[in-house]
Amino acid sequence: MSKSVQKEGMTSRDLQAAKRRKQLLQTAKKLFAEKGYHNTSTKEINRAIGMADGLIYHYFSKGKLEILHTIVQDSTEGKIQHLEKALKNMDADMPIRDMLLKIAHIIVDNADNELIVILIREQPLLTDEQTEWLTRTFDTVIGQLSVLLEKRMLKGELRRLNCKLMARQFVSSIQSYLIEQTILGGGKHRDQTESDKHLMELIDFLLECWR
Fold first, then answer.
1. Are 211 and 160 in contact (CB under 8 A)?
2. Is 20 exposed, middle or buried (0-12, 13-18, 19+ CB in 10 A)?
3. What DSSP string describes the chain?
4. Which among 192, 147, 140 has a CA at the least distance from the CA of 166?
5. CA dihedral for 136, 132, 70, 102, sign (positive or negative)
6. Quick check: 59 and 24 in contact, CB under 8 A?
7. With bands split at pLDDT 50, 70 and 90, how would you rate the model's confidence at 69?
């Protein structure tokens, strides 16, 4: 059932509860990224949105850890779905350099700094099921990209190499760039011109290795 259909059947009280739940998640996400999970109390989250102490358990019965797991699940799903759709609809006739640059921009432009920090810092707090899901999801993206690269290899645009390893090398390079900007750069990304230059240099290097 679509979200629009769900909303039509919701009462004003339901909508208000959904809005408050979303606000709670957004606030907790910001605080977890800034201060860390262990240094953020449920009282602090409540105080930040003007909610009475204890009411947080009405939305998340298992408390703060459930909030963390929900943030990781919801935020990651949205990003991955957007990327998967973009890869599925990628123009097969686009020059390979342009294709890779477009994919790189999709990843970079939709990056979530807070989520990156949380995933790196709080990874030990994730459940085994979440870790396995994240791994499977990442592998799905790698699989889609490797199919695109294999088509280019069969056209003679690339050397006969392991396409999955090429896909992993490409995605890992973009991830390293994002981590550098988020962690070492204090979350301040380079301006568009500088970012474009860096991504083009990276892609040109990879293509030189692959051709």
1. no
2. middle
3. --HHHHHHT--HHHHHHHHHHHHHHHHHHHHHHHH-STT--HHHHHHHHT--TTTHHHH-TTTHHHHHHHHHHHHHHHHHHHHHHHHHT--TTS-HHHHHHHHHHHHHHT--HHHHHHHHHSGGGS-HHHHHHHHHHHHHHHHHHHHHHHHHHHTTSS-S--HHHHHHHHHHHHHHHHHIIIIITTT-PPPHHHHHHHHHHHHHHHHHHH-
4. 147
5. negative
6. yes
7. very high
Tokens of 40: 């953020």
- What global pTM score does this model have? 0.82
Cβ neighbours of 32 (radius 10 Å): 25
Structure tokens at 207: 């293509």
Q: Rounded CA gap, 64 and 24, in Å?
A: 11
pLDDT in tens, 115-167: 999 999 999 999 999 999 999 999 999 999 999 999 999 999 999 999 999 99
Give the CB-side neighbour count of residue 135, counting CA atoms within 13 A. Answer: 8
Other CB atoms within a 10 A radius of the CB of residue 155 amount to: 10
